[in-house]
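Blinded run. Sample ID left blank on purpose so nobody reads anything into the name before looking at the predicted structure. Input follows.
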Amino acid sequence: MADTTTATLRKTINTTLRSHLMSYLPASSTSDPSHLNKDLNPTALRHISPSSFLLALGAPSDLTITPIDYIAQFGKELTASKVKSVDYIPDVVIDTEGRFTAARSGYTNKFTDNGEEVQLEFAWFFEFTEDGRKITKVREFVDADVAGRYQRRVAEILKGLGKE
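Blinded prediction complete.
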């Protein structure tokens, strides 16, 4: 019985994880960032890493973002850049006992002003509810160099649109 329960939980967590990682596509294609919260517990906090990336952007090194604040920021960024494709989700590790996952993903984003594309890569660490259906914590590691250039370019476009 325990093996069946563990297998079911593993499948549920994997489904929730992949649904969240894929949610950037419908959020961009519909310009509705609320897609990004459908798999999150309303109190889930998002942590961005590494701290050097945050400091380079002028943000606090221990920044945490609520689901509501994240979709507000993502929604603003949608006027500058859209997720064109989810390129891969190759590595997923699931700890059913700890309700924890680690994953990697890659996305291609396209700037709205000139169509230029940029590939972004992330490492993710998620915590889940007991049943595995909702994410309770997100730690997102970004490629600091590429993500930093990407964020500066988004800021430049938003400034040009008067939406900084």
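Unblinding after everyone has recorded impressions. The mean pLDDT is 94.
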